[in-house]
Design a protein that fits this description.
This protein is of the alpha/beta class. It contains ten helices and ten strands. Helix content is 39%, strand content 15%. Helix 1 packs parallel to helix 2 and helix 3 packs across helix 4. The radius of gyration is 18 Å and the shape is globular. The structure holds NADP nicotinamide-adenine-dinucleotide phosphate.
């Protein structure tokens, strides 16, 4: 668990549900609840808020034990449109409130007004925390010039292969919880011999090492899996720890590798 800058407690490890739809999304969330996941990361853009919400409501776990994140779709940026979009997300999820609402992408013309709408939703108590996604350092420093509320979370692509130390340092300094999306690099480096050697040393899988690496940096991680076995594997990371030497070796894997677009052109 981590305590956000407004006192709200959030699990550090969660499930990302990008690219899972309908009954598959329901089934995945049901399995995840059984395994112990309590943080769920969706977005209006993922088109699965309805099945995710349905599974969360019927999964036998009390609402207050579950932490739900969703995000403003790029098509809904702007003050009024964001307020409307929030209500629609809430209705699709079937909730009275959302735990964390994020600006999904820092669109050039509209990100400021969109943030102002999030501040309104926060002041109205409809969301327990507000944050941003894909805010690299220049976006964060710009946001600081007009924000009345410091974002609780910044969700960015982050892995040993994209070890963004400037963003990590800034977020720590400003009490913004960094959250790693695509923490498994969508599997693109599972065959890296350096990672495999370390994984063998710990008797763990590459996925488990990547998740553990994020958590030991104090970074939240939201790996996605739609397989029951891999959901369990990804959650089974709390009974070992990486040594400082292993952490340093993984830090050294940085190669600026992205699996999602670089947000920088939005500046
Ligand atoms: N804010 C944003 O702009 C943004 C952008 C991208 C992602 N995200 C969020 O971050 C979440 C995670 O990122 P992601 O989905 O891009 O990628 P990811 O979590 O890095 O990787 C997911 C891929 O890895 C596979 N996988 C999962 N666990 C595995 C394991 N233990 N062994 C082998 N393969 C495994 C999955 O396949 P199976 O399903 O078959 O297991 C899937 O193909 C998303 O679901 C979404 O919630 C946010």
């Amino acid at each position: 668990m981590t305590t956000l800058n407004n006192g709200v407690v959030m699990p550090l490890l969660g499930l990302g549900v990008y690219d899972i739809y309908g009954r598959d999304a329901e089934q995945t969330v049901e399995w995840a609840l059984e395994i112990g996941y309590r943080l769920f990361d969706t977005a209006a853009m993922y088109k699965n808020e309805t099945p995710v919400g349905h599974a969360l409501r019927h999964g036998g776990v009390a609402r207050q034990e579950i932490f739900i994140t969703t995000k403003v779709h790029n098509d809904d940026h702007g003050y009024d449109a964001t307020l409307r979009a929030f209500d629609l997300s809430l209705a699709r999820l079937g909730c009275d409130y959302i735990d964390l609402y994020l600006v999904h992408w820092p669109l050039t013309q509209t990100r400021q007004q969109t943030w102002k709408a999030l501040e309104t939703l926060y002041a109205q108590g409809k969301v327990r925390a507000v944050g941003v996604a894909n805010y690299l350092l220049p976006f964060l420093t710009e946001l600081a010039t007009y924000a009345n509320v410091v974002p609780a979370v910044n969700q960015i692509e982050f892995s040993p292969y994209l070890y963004l130390t400037d963003e990590l340092r800034y977020c720590r300094q400003h009490q913004i919880q960094l959250q790693a999306y695509s923490p498994l690099i969508r599997g693109q480096r599972f065959d890296d011999p350096r990672l495999l050697t370390l994984a063998r040393q710990y008797g763990r899988t590459p996925a488990q090492l990547l998740i553990r690496w994020a958590l030991q940096h104090g970074v939240s991680a939201i790996p996605k899996s739609a397989s029951r076995q891999r959901l369990a594997e990804n959650f089974d990371v709390f009974d070992f720890s990486l040594s400082p030497e292993s952490m340093a070796r993984m830090d050294g894997l940085h190669e600026n590798l992205r699996v999602v677009d670089d947000p920088t052109p939005m500046l």
